[in-house]
Specification:
By secondary structure, the chain is an alpha+beta fold. The chain has helices at residues 2-17, 22-38, 153-158; strands at 50-53, 59-67, 79-87, 98-105, 110-111, 117-118, 124-128, 139-143, 159-162. The strands form three sheets. A five-stranded mixed barrel has the order 1-2-3-4-7.
């Protein structure tokens, strides 16, 4: 009698690991989903990407319409065409305006010459006019020094912190 009791307990334990028990299966799926999110790869700034605006032009958030360089999308220092989605009430730029912007922070890692790589927590841009001059007078947050290679010296001079 005792042997059959242990056999049943073992059988129910193994049955708990199979698909008959939804509790353990659901928990294992949730763990796998969390692992997938933590290992999520960062991609280019592409059509439909939301970006913060890192200057005082009046816009708060823009959505990328088109990356002007590259087939896949934009990276640090590239120019994009964007639409303003949120704007401050008294700003220079109004909601719905189509503007040019330079990507100054990207969540996608970018390799440097010394072997290190730089990546940021968010995607951010600085609004510029058609000549490439910034619309705002201040740039908030860190800006990578790779912008010097892309000829955005004015944005670097307005930045608070160069990373």
């Amino acid at each position: 009698m005792a042997a059959s009791k242990w056999f049943r307990a073992g059988r129910s334990f193994l049955g708990g690991l199979s698909s008959n028990s939804p509790g353990l299966l659901r928990m294992s799926r949730e763990i796998a989903f969390c692992d997938l999110l933590s290992q999520q790869t960062r991609t280019f700034i592409q059509m439909g990407t939301n970006l913060k605006v890192a200057d005082n032009s009046g816009a708060k958030r823009v959505k990328c319409i088109q990356a002007l360089k590259g087939k896949k999308g934009a990276r640090l220092g590239d120019t994009i065409v964007a639409s303003v989605k949120e704007a401050a009430p008294g700003g220079t730029v109004k909601k719905g305006a189509v503007v040019y912007a330079v990507v100054v922070r990207a969540a996608m890692p970018r390799g440097r010459c010394d072997g290190s790589e730089v990546k940021f927590d968010d995607n951010a841009c600085v609004l510029v006019n058609k000549q490439g001059e910034p619309i705002g007078k201040r740039v908030h947050g860190p800006v990578p020094h790779e912008l010097r290679k892309k000829k955005h010296i004015k944005i670097l001079s307005l930045a608070e912190h160069i990373a």
